[in-house]
Amino acid sequence: MRMAPQLSFQGSHNSSKTRGRRRKCFCGERPVLRTSSTMENPERRFWGCVNYQIREECDYFASAEAEGQDAQIQRLKKKASVLKKNLQKAEKKFALALAVGILGWIMAGLLLYNRFN
């Protein structure tokens, strides 16, 4: 799949970015992280051949959005897990406070009953 020629590109050596993409493009070079500037896909990130528009034989393209989404999904799952644990702790504290409150009212009722009898 060919992208329109209006592209800006940036190289990236971040190891977390290399997990979801090929280590080499079709012409044997390391892909670089690019940002599309086309009207159809403005600001979309993708991995493309370093030789794009220099050599015509390589059409390497891989979306970089899925990698970012996977990382974001993992962060959100972790955050949800922490929030769930915090909610469980708060529910236990509430149940304990409720039990202490009910027990306090029962004790107060018994004291009043014994005082007037």
Low-pLDDT runs of 5+ residues are 1-21
User: In percent, how much strand structure appears in the residues?
Assistant: 5-15%
Task: Specify the overall morphology.
Answer: rod-shaped
Order of helices and strands: EHEEEH
Number of domains: 2
Describe the 3D structure.
This is Zinc finger GRF-type domain-containing protein. The chain crosses the membrane at residues 94-113. Residues 66-93 form a coiled coil. With 117 residues, the protein is of the alpha+beta class. It has two domains: 7-63, no CATH class; 69-117. Helix content is 48%, strand content 14%. It contains two helices and four strands. The chain has helices at 15-18, 65-116; strands at residues 7-10, 32-36, 45-48, 61-63. A four-stranded antiparallel beta sheet has the order 1-2-3-4.
Structure summarized in a few sentences:
This protein is of the alpha+beta class and 117 residues long.
Task: Describe the structure using short key phrases.
four-stranded antiparallel β-sheet, coiled coil, transmembrane, 2 helices, 4 strands, single chain, disordered N terminus, 117 residues, membrane, alpha+beta, rod-shaped
Present the secondary structure layout.
Layout: E1 7-10, H1 15-18, E2 32-36, E3 45-48, E4 61-63, H2 65-116
